[in-house]
Amino acid sequence: MIKKQTALEKLMEERKSVRKYEPGVKIPRETITHILQQATTAPSSSNLQPWRFLVIDDQEQKKELRIAGFNQAQIETSSTIIAVLGDNEMYKNAKQINDLNVELGYMPRDIADMMIANSETAYSAFSDAERTNIAHLDAGLITMQIVLLAKDMGHETVIMGGFDKVAFAKTYELPANEIPMVLIAIGKAALPARNSSRLPLEQIMRFSN
Ligand SMILES: Cc1cc2nc3c(=O)[nH]c(=O)nc-3n(C[C@H](O)[C@H](O)[C@H](O)COP(=O)(O)O)c2cc1C
Q1: CA 143 to CA 95: how far, in whole Å?
Q2: Which among 31, 32, 29, 23 has a CA at the least distance from the CA of 59?
Q3: What are the structural domains of the chain?
Q4: Which residue among 65, 67, 84, 147 is the one 20 to 30 A from 169 at the CA level?
Q5: Is any atom of ligand 1 closer than 6 Å to the C-beta of 144?
Q6: Ligand 1 atom nearest to 195, measured from its CA
């Protein structure tokens, strides 16, 4: 039986990393803001939402950033770069997040208080590196939502881990708790993306019994 491809399956199949962009194309800031707002539906560890975004759409700054971005042309030619940062002090927002859960009627007060206490105790006991690791996973989840939302709105993207994170943090004077994770280039394709193969499913999955 051939099942009809769902809209999500089609979107996922059609998203590809585009590296050649039409220079000079602008994406309105409202569009980027809308994508980021929608993307925040992503799940995160203890709902601490450690993602932070620095949006770079100034042409001169993108040109400069290409140097820290190992000279990847798409940094300069795409319309907008979204730098996804991870806040490794994310537990400091546990109270704000869970108080809002109570206010919105999503959670009783006693559960919220327990969540706040648990998050503050557990996360503050983790090392910086452990918290950064958690932030990386959460940043990956929201990154995927961003690129799919962008594709759904007709924009092409490429995710980039290949950039000098120390230089980036220095240029944008990031506070020590904000760790650069990936850059996402968004724009209009000048050339379609190369297709890319995937490992066969039999090689990557197994049932436990
Ligand atoms: C975490 C991460 C880092 C990546 N870094 C880069 C990068 O620095 N430069 C680049 O051109 N592509 C980068 N990519 C894109 C991958 O090369 C691409 O996703 C992969 O080859 C599969 O191709 P597709 O995205 O077109 O399906 C990265 C992707 C991910 C998920």
Answers
A1: 25
A2: 23
A3: 7-193 (3.40.109.10)
A4: 147
A5: no
A6: 26
